[in-house]
Structures are given as structure tokens and as C-alpha cells.
Amino acid sequence: MKLIKWLLAIALTLCVSLVLYITLLFDVNAFKPELIELVKKQTGRELQIKQDLSWSFFPKLGIDLGGIILSNPQGFKTDEMIKVKGVVASVALKPLFSNKVQIEQLLLDGVEINLVTTQDGRSSLDGLVAENAPNRAPEVTQESLSKGSGQFTMDELSIGGVRVTNAKVNIINLAQDSLTTLNLKEFTLGKFSLGQASQLQYEFEMAANINVSSQGKGLLTVSSDLSKLSIDGLDIKTTMSGDALPETINTAMIGALSLDINRQALQLTLDKLSAQDFSGSADIGVNYANPIPKINLSLVLDEMDLDPYLPAEEGDPATDIHESSTTVAALEPDLSALKTLDVNLKVKIAAIKAAKLKTENWQIAMKVKNGKLTIKEFSLDLYQGKMNLTASLDANQTIARYQFEQSLKDVQIRPLLMDAAELEVLSGTANFSMAGTGQSLIPTKLKQNLVADGAFEVADGALYGVNIPQMLRTAQAKLSGELSAVDTQELKTDFSRLTGSFNIKEASVTNPDLAISAPLLRIAGAGSLDIISQAIDYKLTTRVVGSLAGQEEQANPLKGLDIPLKIYGTVQEPEYGLDTSGLLDAKLKQETEKVKEKVKDKLKDGLLKRLGDL
């Protein structure tokens, strides 16, 4: 029993001696004036440490400090830039006798940061980095760290854990009269040492025009020479809401992040990326060695249904098109941001459904650099065919200039027109090509300044809204004196091939050479379409090359006769009619030709008879 008492007495004596040794020989407050002076010299800011630094001995040996304040520059409305309520560093006791620091746990509580931008553009961050500092930070190595202190090396530093609670960041922009508040509810880092993975976890909220709530976790690793940082097993879930959004948006990301300080490169790989009903993966690389960071972004997205996010249809489409061109402000969009970007973007999308339009296999490759946007590839599958587009936009001039080439190949045109615009005008397998240039992105000027040429071909199709054979039978009846003849058959004209070319200039589409081959007909056309008003002014010339249904070959008075038809109205509501006066003129011309032929025949016969008599 006496032995146990002696052992307890010795242990107590050792503990008391240790406490006295630490408190008497280690005066932590002696560093305060040096630290305050150093901050003043480097930044010009005032650093306050209101509470004395003190030792805590239960439950662990630690250093407590609080009331830390770093000021904003002089003249700022908010005096305090950083305010810390309390910091506790729990230190392992044994390594102190060897001049080593092993922090078992670091606690930060009540951190508040006020980042202010004044109306004249000054920032709270101004002056925190010396103006004569080089643009590129010197390479950090273990050797340089060791030489820098002489007594302390980074391999002697380890932290049992870090915990930050009740942290708040206020981003105040007086020029824009805006306030964004970020609340870091909790940040924890597990046992940390260089070169080893440590568990990382956070939860924060942001209040602004869009409210954000996010939580995440991962495994943090910092290399021994401090040049590389990585977070594996990154798992982030975020919720966004607010008046600026149509509904609450939930997102999730799973992947990995890496940062190479020497190469000044950041890489974010997301094996899973989801937002609402959308899902896919992404790969983002950033090289920030140059003044304009170079960004490579690759996205792979699964099938997307955009219907729930499209606005409800309202009003008449033709009216909407016309009104939109007059209500948009006549100002060129500001594209100056393109000059500050160096971005390569690649996107693959399995399928997209928007309204009734269905598309698949999207492939997009585009680049933004030196104020120019280039679409190197934009292709997709639609309605048993394929669309391809290449384009460029140059924003280096006051009025942006653009050029493009577009094609459609083997597309079923009828379902495409029906789903895209509810137009039943044409059916068949369509091929289409167009190339053009223009300037200005103001909607009205865009239409007026577009200059383009193109061609089209449709095979095995039909024109809807007009039955040309029936119209010809009506024309024949009218030529015969039956002025009350009425069309009763389906308004559709089948054809085997439809071809033509077109050009666009001064907001007008002109087609000079439409050619349609139908079973009994040959049709040629020419006319124009006003892009702004959507008005049609078009004429067709039809020639019968066979017998119309219900007619004898020899009894068809229209065979070989050029019969003029006209198309007018608008694209949404086209109207078709027979050009009666043109028909009569053509018939008169045909009869005149017949009379001429008869006269020629009689003169020929008479001449031959006279020659025979001689």
C-alpha cells in the first residue's frame, strides 16, 4: 500500500514539475509584439490579439488564444477584415523537449471575414501580397524549408486534427450594392501529416440571390515538399434555391481533385455528376501559369429531357417572331469576356428531347481564344439522318462577325417539321447544305446582314396543302367553260425528286430554280420569302407529261401546256392558287403555236405540190 502511495506521489510531483517547467520557461506571450510588428510591416494592417496566450492542461496540453482581429485598409466602412473568437492548439507534450511541434488538435471557433469592394474598386485583399513579389512563386522544396529556419523542418510537423466551427464570410460589394454571406457550419480534418491521406469533411450555407447549401467529404493528401495537393473520394452534395431559379436544384458530384503548384495546374475529375434529372461525368483541367488560364473541359451526359424546364407556349408563333424582332433593345451584346478566356470544350450527349423534337448522339467541340469562338464540330442524329455544323464568331471588332457551314443528310423532313414547328408542308428524305457569313448579333440586323447560299434535295416525298393534279383538272374544266369546278381530293402532291438552290441577302430568301419530278408532271418554281414578315411570293410552272387520272391520253388538252400556279400567304399559313390569267395566256400561246404549225404544214404541202407539177 505504501508503494502505491509513493508511486502516486512521484507521478504527481512529476506532473507539477512539468507544469511549472512549461509555464515558467515557455512564455508564449513574448511572441505577440513580434507577430504584430511583422504583420504591420508586411501588409500595413493592424493586428490585435486582445487575450493573452495561455496554456491549458486539461484534457490535453494546449495553447489558447482569442480576440484576434486583422483590420481592413484605412477608409473602409467595415473596419475589421478578419475576427477570430478563439483558437486552441492541443500539443503533444513529449516532442516539446526535443524542440518539435506535434499538434494533436487545432480548433478555430467564431471566425468572421469581411471582404469589401468599395465603389472606387478597392478591395480588402489589396496589399496583402507585396507589390514586388514575382508572378510565379518559387519552387518549394524540403531542402529550402530546412535551410529557412535552421531548427524546424516540415517533417517534424503533424496535426492530429483540425476543426473549424461557426465561420462566416461576408462578401460586400458597395459598387453593386450586394451582400453575399457564406456560413461554414463545420470543417474537420482528421489526423494530418505530409504525404499521408487525411479525412476531410465540410458543411456550409451561402445566402445571396441564390441560396446554396453544400456538404462534402474526401481524403486530403499534401506531398512532403508541399508542391502537390490531392483530394480523392471527393463526394459533394449541393442544394440551390431562390427567386432567380424556377425550382430547387439538387446536384451531386463524386470524383477527385489534384493541384500541382510547381506546374500551376489543377485537375478535377468527376466520375459522377448529376443535377435534377440530368447525369453524366466531367473532366476539368486548368493551367494558370499564364495571365489567361487555359481551361480544358470535357462533358459526357446521359439522355436529357428538357420539357419540364421549357416555358409554356403562349401566343401565335408568327406573331411572336415578328414582335420579338421589334422589342429587343437595339444594342450589340458585350462579348469582351471572350478576350479573357482560353477554353477548349468537348461535349457528348446521348440524347436530348425538347418539346416534341428528338435528337441523339450529340458531339460538340468548340474553342474560345483571343476573342474568337470556334465551333469545330457540332453534330447530332435526328429523324433517321444527321446534322453537321461548323462556325466561328469573331468578337475583336465593335460589331461581331460570324461565318458558318451547315448540312442535313438523309433526314425524314415531315416528322422533323411537324415536331419542330407543327408544319405539314413537305415529306421525303431530305439533304440540305448552307454556308454563310454576317455581322451584328442584334436580332433584326442579324436577319438583315446575313449573306448565305445553299442547296436542297428531297427524294420520294410529297407537298402538303396542294393537289396539283386536281388543280390541273380544275384548270381543264375552266378552260372548257365549267367555271364551278371544285377540288375535292386530298391536298397532297406526290413527287419522286425535288431539288433547288437558294441565296439569302437583305432579309430575303430567293429560290430561282426549283425543280420537281412527279409521276405525270414536271414542275419548275421561283420566288422569295421575307425572313422578317415570313411572307411568301412564289410561282410554280407545271407541265403535264402524261395522262391525268380519269382522262384519255389523246383527249388531254393540258398535255404540253405550261400551267402557272402561285403560292402566297405566310410560312405558317401558306395558300395555293391557280394563275388563271397566266393559264389563259399559256393556252392562247399554245393554240397560236398550233395554228402556226398548221399554216406551216399547208405552205409546205402547197410548195411540194407546185414542185411536183414542175
TrEMBL record:
UniProt-recorded name of the protein: AsmA
GO CC aspect terms: plasma membrane
Species name: Shewanella denitrificans (strain OS217 / ATCC BAA-1090 / DSM 15013)
GO terms of biological process kind: regulation of protein targeting to membrane
Residue ranges annotated for the AsmA domain, each copy included: 5-265
Superkingdom of origin: Bacteria
